[in-house]
């Protein structure tokens, strides 16, 4: 039996109401537009980013918290109960997370843009409260998970990094008021590693073990190799954080080598899974996923080179771009464009008492083609702008990225609109009682 069959067996019984899941995806699509808009206004600062509170940090966090984290929370809340075969104990905590995260991220990013330190701290604390509530939901579900131990292991590692992120982020924000951290910039760097590779990265790697075989219709990757990759990945993140905080070049080198090893193992498993799959043509979403797989090792190499000062004057910005846009954003948008219609068809099908809904009924994919072209062009131009230290191409990249994000938002809005009750289709039954 393929993983898809076992994954989907009884999945509809563990689906969250569409109104909960899709509010996260809708918010992520809106933040995506906002991130490119603020990037347009801060392009020059961003390509020369070296740290410190500035409007550029606002664009950065609109991207990482607004798009990456919001997508990850929506996907994890929905997919984890299906993957672990344990329904969430209740739905209201997920709604609560939404109502803490979205105002928190909005307040934090607006006040970062206007450099209002007290409001940055308030937004950071609210965001962290949302993240910690989500950590509790995740922990409760993982604790009861019996099947898919590899996914659960990545889930626990992501959870530990999530807690560290939710503590370090506000600590850095409060430090603008208290100035107690003697090495603010060093902690900011460690925070980027723990949040980027630890929290978001572990979730991305873990869910890949379910989603890639599910979409390719192939068996799950070998458990031993997957666990070896997991141990190497966790070791790399922990050592990188220790090495950066302690300024220990030897440890940073070991972490980078270990990280590259973990990535090599992960990608080998993923490519094998694609080759063994019954479905060969995986479409546009997997072009993005494959591009993200190239950016992941490139980000480690760039981070390593930037640490040793060999990545040019804008090395830190290049590292951030490869990690956050090249790897995480490209991967998540690739997966999101696949799971949005997939979840929508499952919801629409259950609303029609099991009659399968077709993806094409829910949304056209032309906006996705426009988005993919814009995303690739914007990313390429940003790399060029950073390497050549020229703001002009970065401004052009932001206009192109903004166009792509609007196309993606249009696609997401269409999928969501397709789920709304119409005179011709019965309303989706919301099991909101819990
Ligand atoms: C509660 C959530 C978060 C808060 C409150 C927060 C806050 C901050 C603050 C205050 C800084 C320091 C800017 C400076 O003074 O240099 C920072 C830097 C940064 N954060 Fe976050 N952050 C959060 C989550 C995240 C997440 C989830 C990611 C990535 C997925 C992330 C990525 C980064 C990056 C890349 C930097 C730049 C580090 C550097 O200067 O090298 N943050 N964050």
Topology:
Elements: H1 3-8, H2 18-47, H3 55-84, H4 92-113, H5 117-143, H6 149-178, H7 184-216, H8 223-246, H9 249-276, H10 283-307, H11 315-351, H12 359-362, H13 366-388, H14 391-419
Residues 51-53, 57, 60-61, 64-65, 68-69, 124, 127-128, 131, 165-166, 169-170, 172-173, 184, 188-189, 191-192, 195-196, 199-200, 316, 320 line the site of protoporphyrin IX containing FE.
Q: How would you explain this protein's 3D organization?
A:
With 434 residues, this protein is mainly α. It has a single domain, classed as Cytochrome C Oxidase, Chain A, CATH 1.20.210. It is built from 14 helices and no strands. The chain has helices spanning 3-8, 18-47, 55-84, 92-113, 117-143, 149-178, 184-216, 223-246, 249-276, 283-307, 315-351, 359-362, 366-388, 391-419. Helix 2 runs parallel beside helix 4 (92-113) and helix 10 (283-307) runs antiparallel to helix 11. The model is unreliable at 425-434 (pLDDT under 50). Bound molecules: protoporphyrin IX containing FE. Protoporphyrin IX containing FE binds next to helix 3, helix 5, helix 6, helix 7 and helix 11.
